[in-house]
């Protein structure tokens, strides 16, 4: 695979564009599996492929990117993503789940996902927070809220994002007054309404700020893995078994684990026995 030599300084010169370059052993495993069955490794499954729901509703996520630890498994059980956007949100929520104290963000998202009609948003936030059920989950949402609702420039919004990322929560207090004044002037609302609109930013104090671009990168790989697991379970199981870095409960994945996970209890996934996995390997 090609190597790209870049730094944050050379990327930053291009402007407010988010680049996310991922590299880990899961890519190699997926690449080799695709090659083994004669598929172009660059082939993409549809972003809302039904395999996502099939895999996650059966908790058969062994080997899926980001799902190896306790946080991923615990969140996967309650979250059960069904499409690309929900996968992206889940990977972002994993980071928030590690914040000490805390599951308000996760609880709010899962509650909204289960009962979308319960989410009531002001019109100014419909296009910004609608996809995450009123929860400000991504950096991109934070910056759109500051610019479109709070009247800040993109440079000012990026300063807020950067400060919050570095744990400098005092930026929230610094921006509150100007946000309220700008919102009152630009949207013709009273002070109480404008102050209420600042609540999503107040709630980010001490919390992780995640980039949607980063979540999308993980979700893209996870979609491909779900589709490959459902269409070529024996090959998926063999690559998983041969990967010494793939773990279950802190131990290398056994052949039995790999087979049981890829079968998912479904007859149409034709792994008859372990010999098929060994043959694929």
Tags for this model:
single chain; 281 residues; mainly alpha; two-stranded antiparallel sheet; elongated
Structure description:
The protein has 281 residues and is mainly α. The chain has helices at residues 8-12, 25-36, 51-57, 70-79, 84-97, 104-114, 123-129, 139-149, 154-165, 170-187, 191-197, 199-202, 212-231, 233-242, 255-263, 274-280, and strands spanning 247-248, 251-252. The chain has a two-stranded antiparallel sheet with strand order 1-2. The chain starts with 7 loop residues before the first helix and ends with a helix. Mean pLDDT is 81; it is low at 267-278.
Please report the number of helical segments.
16
Q: Please, what is the average pLDDT? A: 81
Instruction: Look at the helices and sheets and give the structural class.
Output: mainly alpha
Helix content: 55-70%
What strand line-up does the widest sheet have?
A: 1-2
Summarize the structure.
The protein is built from 16 helices and two strands.
What layout of secondary structure does this protein have?
Elements: H1 8-12, H2 25-36, H3 51-57, H4 70-79, H5 84-97, H6 104-114, H7 123-129, H8 139-149, H9 154-165, H10 170-187, H11 191-197, H12 199-202, H13 212-231, H14 233-242, E1 247-248, E2 251-252, H15 255-263, H16 274-280
Antiparallel strand pairs: 1-2
Helix pairs in contact: 2-13, 2-14, 3-13, 4-5, 5-13, 7-8, 8-9, 10-11, 13-14, 14-15, 14-16
């Amino acid at each position: 695979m090609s190597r790209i030599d870049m730094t944050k300084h050379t990327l930053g010169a291009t402007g407010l564009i988010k680049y996310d370059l991922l590299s880990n052993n899961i890519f190699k495993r997926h690449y080799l599996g695709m090659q083994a069955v004669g598929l172009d490794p660059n082939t993409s499954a549809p972003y809302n492929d039904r395999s996502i729901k099939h895999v996650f509703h059966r908790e058969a996520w062994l080997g899926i990117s980001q799902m190896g630890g306790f946080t991923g498994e615990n969140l996967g059980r309650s979250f059960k993503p069904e499409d690309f956007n929900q996968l992206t949100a889940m990977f972002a929520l994993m980071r928030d789940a590690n914040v000490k104290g805390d599951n308000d963000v996760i609880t709010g998202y899962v509650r909204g996902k289960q009962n979308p009609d319960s989410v009531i948003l002001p019109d100014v936030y419909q296009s910004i927070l609608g996809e995450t059920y009123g929860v400000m989950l991504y950096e991109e949402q934070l910056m759109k809220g500051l610019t479109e609702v709070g009247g800040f420039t993109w440079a000012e919004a990026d300063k807020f994002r950067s400060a919050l990322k570095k744990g400098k929560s005092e930026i929230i207090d610094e921006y509150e007054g100007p946000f309220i004044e700008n919102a009152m002037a630009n949207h013709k609302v009273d002070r109480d309404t404008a102050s209420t609109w600042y609540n999503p930013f107040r709630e980010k104090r001490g919390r992780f700020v995640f980039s949607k671009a980063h979540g999308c990168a993980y979700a893209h790989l996870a979609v491909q893995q779900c589709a490959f697991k459902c269409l070529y379970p024996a090959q998926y199981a063999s690559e998983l078994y041969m990967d010494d870095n793939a773990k279950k409960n802190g131990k290398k994945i056994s052949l039995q684990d790999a087979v049981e996970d890829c079968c998912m209890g479904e007859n149409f996934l034709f792994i008859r026995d372990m010999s098929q996995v060994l043959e694929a390997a």
